[in-house]
UniProtKB/TrEMBL annotation:
Keywords: Membrane, Phosphate transport, Transmembrane, Transmembrane helix, Transport. The keyword Ion transport does not apply. It is found in: Membrane. Belongs to the inorganic phosphate transporter (PiT) (TC 2.A.20) family. It holds the Pfam family PHO4. The chain crosses the membrane at residues 6-24, 45-61, 81-101, 108-129, 135-158, 196-212, 218-240, 307-327, 333-352. The keyword Transport applies. This is Phosphate transporter. PANTHER family: LOW-AFFINITY INORGANIC PHOSPHATE TRANSPORTER-RELATED (PTHR11101:SF54), PHOSPHATE TRANSPORTER (PTHR11101).
Length: 426
């Protein structure tokens, strides 16, 4: 193994912690629809996803090369910059997990890396062309392409299965969901596990332990795959609930269409070396599948909050990372302060999450919506509604005979005026 300094060791451990949070943050991408439709039990689903994430980590290193060689210039980047980037990414992952929003771990890492690099070496440290073509454009295209493919696939599956019995169709598509969920998990391992491989490789190059342009060593691939698999097994139950039932109500046919479309998009991007957000692809596919069924709806209030989180991911992680990099310029004291801040923040977020626990036992429970107050229009219509007695008589055809009496009955009687007091005697 390469010569590892204390600071470099801290950076590597922090990178594996990020990989762990990436695992439980993105479990929903592969297994939310499978769990919500009942195709697999929750614990079985996350165990299957963990194994396939580990296998997928060994299938390719193209995305890792994009991060370690293409996004930022390796020259002049110090291990402190990598540490600051990981701090921003981890905190954003935990905050969005706490509120149950499926945001992109990949973009959190990219934003943290860009923010820390700019704070350390200026704008020239970031390769703008790579950022636009391999990060930003796929971020916009992925949910659109996956959503359109899933909507079309859902429509086709319903049309082809129209003459098949409902129970038989549901059973067959549940089996298809299990296969497609496995494909998504495999694709997730080939894409997201590589991001941590790339960041550790970049740290090793920055610390002088590897020559510039090196591929990830075998021990980096193994450790990154193990970390993301363990995180996946724990399951990000809060985000699974949002993806499974918070965005739309899915039937097995829709779940199969969503997962197959998302897996195809993710595997294609991994082959091309695009640092795609699996969250964007899977969320777009779920919404597309929701619209692919006749009468299906998407809960746009939840989707809007998710879109806002997507837009904030890159800049929020970048701001936190740049602040952490500035603090670490003070030396070892600054590094220790940032490490303590990260640890304290993680513990605080975990304690807050214990106030309302979401796990495998209640992940499919739908939270009751709050009752809405009647609006002005509803109140006005109620005020001029035909009285119940009159409405019933009209339906019976006897309105003409009793209209006057019925109307008089609805008008409050006037209160007779009090008699005038007798005039005072003169």
């Amino acid at each position: 193994m390469e010569h590892i300094t204390l600071l470099l060791g801290i950076v590597i451990i922090t990178a594996l912690v990020f990989d762990f949070t990436n695992g439980f943050h993105d479990t929903a991408n592969a297994m939310a629809t499978t769990i919500s439709t009942g195709a697999l039990k929750p614990k079985t689903a996350v165990a299957m996803s963990a194994v396939l994430n580990l296998v997928g980590a060994f299938m390719s290193v193209e995305v890792a090369k994009t991060i370690s060689k293409g996004l930022v210039n390796e020259e002049g980047i110090q291990p402190e910059v990598i540490f600051a980037a990981l701090v921003g990414a981890i905190l954003w992952n935990l905050v969005t997990w706490l509120v149950g929003l499926p945001s992109s771990s990949s973009h959190a890492l990219m934003g943290g890396l860009v923010g820390a690099a700019v704070a350390s070496a200026g704008l020239g440290a970031v390769n703008g062309g790579t950022l636009v073509t391999k990060v930003l454009l796929p971020a916009v295209a992925a949910p659109i392409v996956a959503g359109a493919a899933a909507m079309l696939a859902a429509k086709v599956t319903y049309k082809l299965g129209g003459n098949v019995g409902r129970k038989t169709s549901a059973k067959g598509y549940k089996a298809g969901q299990i296969a497609s969920a496995g494909l998504v998990s495999l694709a997730h391992g080939t894409n997201d596990a590589q991001k941590t491989m790339g960041i550790i490789t970049l740290a090793l190059v920055a610390g002088g332990a590897l020559a510039p342009g090196s591929n990830p060593p075998v021990w980096v691939i193994v450790s990154a795959g193990m970390a993301i698999a363990m995180g996946t097994y724990l399951g990000g139950w809060r985000i699974i609930r949002t993806m499974g039932s918070g965005l739309t109500d899915l039937q097995p046919q829709q779940g199969f269409a969503a997962q197959t479309s998302a897996a195809s998009v993710i595997l294609a991007s991994s082959t091309l070396g695009f640092s795609l957000s699996t969250t964007h692809a899977c969320s777009g596919a779920v919404m597309g599948a929701g619209l692919g069924r006749k009468g299906g709806v998407v809960r746009w209030s939840t989707a809007s909050r998710m879109f806002i989180a997507w837009g904030l991911t890159l800049p929020a992680a970048a701001v936190v990372a740049s602040g952490a990099e500035l603090v670490m310029r003070t030396g070892d004291v600054g590094v220790a302060a940032v490490a303590l801040f990260l640890a304290a923040s993680c513990v605080a977020i975990w304690l807050i999450s214990r106030r309302q626990v979401v796990d495998h036992s209640n992940v499919n429970e739908v939270q009751p919506a709050a009752a809405e107050e009647p609006g002005v229009v509803t109140t006005a219509m109620a005020a001029v509604t035909v009285p119940p007695t009159l409405a019933a008589e009209a339906a019976a055809g006897t309105t003409a005979a009793v209209t006057d009496e019925a109307l008089k009955a609805t008008i409050p009687a006037a209160t007779p005026a009090a008699p005038a007091a007798p005039a005072a005697a003169v």
